[in-house]
What does this fold into?
Amino acid sequence: MKDEISFLDHLKELRARLIKSLIVVGLFFVPFIPFANEIYLLVSSPLQQILPANSSMIATEVASPFIAPLKISFFVSLFFSIPYSIVQIWGFIAPGMYEDEKAFAFGIFLSSLVLFYVGVFFSYFVILPLVFNFFTSSAP
It folds into this structure.
């Protein structure tokens, strides 16, 4: 029989795992800060390639040129910390599962990780250029 722990102990473990995941996001975010503008240029390159000649993106708020690259750096740090977060989720739920459930759930976790990254790359290389092309062609 499995060792049973109280509901409060489950919450404490969940809290500890969430904190670890947030720390990893922060550890990825800090080194990305100096490269925030380069990351912004990389992420915005599909739009910049489709913009008409002699046009550029503009900031619609005063703080946008500063905040937008930092936001993108934060989302890139989330992107890179997803595997660790999934491992933390797995570490939380796996002790309460039977062996056959673990095998099934492990396949689901692994495939969800692969599908997440495939979806991100598909969106970046296929969907975003189509969407940006539509928006720039329908602009007045």
